[in-house]
Structure formats: structure tokens, C-alpha cells
Specification:
With about 50 residues, the protein is mainly alpha-helical. It is built from one helix and no strands.
């Protein structure tokens, strides 16, 4: 006799769309955080150069 698993006991299967979503999240996070750092560095550099 095969036992039926309850809903909470079933193993979680990761799907391909979830992996793509995680990759998209990683890309957008790196893009926005990296872009913000570069933009802020550029603003500080311009302000420093305009000081003279």
C-alpha cells in the first residue's frame, strides 16, 4: 500500500520560471545598485571639480 503524502509533506520542486525570476532579480538588483553607486560617484566627482 502506497501512502499518500499530505500537501505540506510533498517535496518542493523548483521550476525553471522561478530560476529565471531569481536571475532577473539578481540582474536588476546589481544593475540598480551598481548604477546608483556609479551615478553618486559621478555626482561627487563633478561637485569636486566644480569647486575650483
Amino acid at each position: 500500500m502506497a501512502e499518500k503524502l499530505r500537501e505540506e509533506e510533498k517535496p518542493v520542486e523548483r521550476s525553471a520560471p522561478e530560476n529565471l525570476t531569481l536571475k532577473g532579480t539578481l540582474f536588476s538588483t546589481l544593475f540598480f545598485v551598481g548604477g546608483s553607486i556609479v551615478l553618486w560617484t559621478g555626482v561627487l566627482l563633478v561637485l569636486f571639480l566644480l569647486r575650483f
